[in-house]
């Protein structure tokens, strides 16, 4: 059974005063917090158990979201005295028995209307250690090169500008991925530990890291402009998750 992790522990400092008194995942699109958008999409995709890590204002998200029963799922809250990083939290879920199968990770500021069942099916059929969602963008922190079968041949985290020019791909990591038990067991015991920097770069080129191209709306809310863009997309129907239809029924 696939479990999910929604990393929500960061400070969201790039959003300035918008996140001075609340965690970034509680910023709203369409009148609902980002973390609710993510939880509802995970539940619609068949996920039944979700881990959410907490650090900045750790009581705020549980107070708003509760135990998950309202969404038909269960939530394990993981309080971090020090930030463990995306990979560090995934490893903690594995070592503490909160997941025993594949772990789907959806960053806490990334909303999408992509049906994630396709990601889970590709991961299972490819037998990859990790499968990442990618999309095309000229500039991003994590650049991805793939072969004709979708295997990642190079994953470059935060390349220098000259190095960036030499890369033969516009694909970038979308902030959504799924990790196999083998991958979870191999995560380095360092803190903080980051999925792109400390895991994906090492898996690339060894037929262990698979990529799936995004086929839906997706937005990472990392600025005021992106938050406004996501709300505009919601109002115009450009961002239309399936669970929105259920709420309107």
Mind sketching the topology for me?
Layout lengths: L2 E5 L20 E2 L2 E2 H11 L4 E6 L5 H6 L8 E6 L5 H11 L7 E4 L3 E3 L4 H10 L3 E7 L5 E5 L5 E6 L3 H6 L4 E9 L1 H6 L8 H9 L5 E5 L4 E3 L3 H13 L5 H7 L1
Parallel strand pairs: 1-4, 1-6, 4-5, 8-12
Antiparallel strand pairs: 2-3, 6-11, 7-13, 8-11, 9-10, 9-11
Question: How would you explain this protein's 3D organization?
Answer:
The chain has helices at 34-44, 60-65, 85-95, 117-126, 161-166, 181-186, 195-203, 224-236, 242-248; strands spanning 3-7, 28-29, 32-33, 49-54, 74-79, 103-106, 110-112, 130-136, 142-146, 152-157, 171-179, 209-213, 218-220. The chain is globular. It has one domain: Spore Coat Polysaccharide Biosynthesis Protein SpsA, Chain A. It contains nine helices and 13 strands. The protein is of the alpha/beta class and 249 residues long. A hairpin with a 2-residue loop joins strand 2 (28-29) and strand 3. The mean pLDDT is 94. The two termini are 29 Å apart. Strands 1, 4, 5, 6, 8, 9, 10, 11 and 12 form a nine-stranded mixed β-sheet that branches. Strands 2-3 form a two-stranded antiparallel ribbon. It has a two-stranded antiparallel sheet with strand order 7-13.
Q: What do we call the CATH topology? A: Spore Coat Polysaccharide Biosynthesis Protein SpsA, Chain A
Could you say which structural class the secondary elements and strand pairing correspond to? alpha/beta
Overall form = globular
How many structural units, i.e. domains?
A: 1
What is the straight-line distance between the termini?
A: 29 Å
Going by CATH, the architecture would be Alpha-Beta Complex
Helix content: 25-40%
- Please tally the β strands and state the result: 13
Which CATH C-level class is it? Answer: Alpha Beta
Oligomer: single chain
The number of helical runs is 9
Biggest β-sheet: count, sense, barrel? 9 strands, mixed
């Amino acid at each position: 059974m696939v479990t999910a992790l929604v990393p929500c522990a960061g400070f969201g400092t790039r959003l300035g005063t918008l996140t001075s008194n609340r965690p970034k995942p509680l910023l709203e699109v369409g009148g609902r917090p980002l973390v609710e958008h993510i939880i509802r999409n995970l539940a619609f995709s068949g996920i039944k158990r979700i881990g959410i890590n907490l650090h900045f204002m750790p009581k705020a998200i549980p107070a708003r979201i509760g135990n998950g029963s309202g969404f038909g799922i269960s939530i394990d809250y993981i309080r971090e005295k020090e930030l463990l990083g995306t990979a560090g939290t995934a490893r903690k879920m594995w070592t503490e028995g909160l997941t025993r199968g594949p772990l789907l990770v959806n960053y806490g500021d990334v909303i999408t209307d992509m049906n994630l069942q396709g990601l889970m099916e590709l991961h299972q059929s490819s037998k990859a250690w990790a499968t990442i969602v990618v999309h095309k963008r000229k500039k991003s922190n994590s650049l991805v090169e793939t072969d004709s079968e979708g295997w990642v041949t190079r994953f470059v985290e935060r390349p220098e500008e000259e190095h960036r020019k030499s890369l033969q791909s516009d694909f970038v990591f979308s902030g959504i991925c799924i990790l196999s038990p083998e991958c979870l067991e191999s995560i380095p015991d360092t803190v903080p530990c980051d999925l792109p920097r400390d895991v994906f770069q090492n898996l690339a080129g060894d037929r262990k890291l698979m990529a799936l191209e995004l086929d839906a709306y997706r937005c990472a809310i990392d600025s005021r402009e992106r938050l406004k863009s996501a709300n505009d997309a919601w109002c115009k129907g450009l961002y239309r998750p399936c669970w929105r239809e259920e709420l309107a029924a």
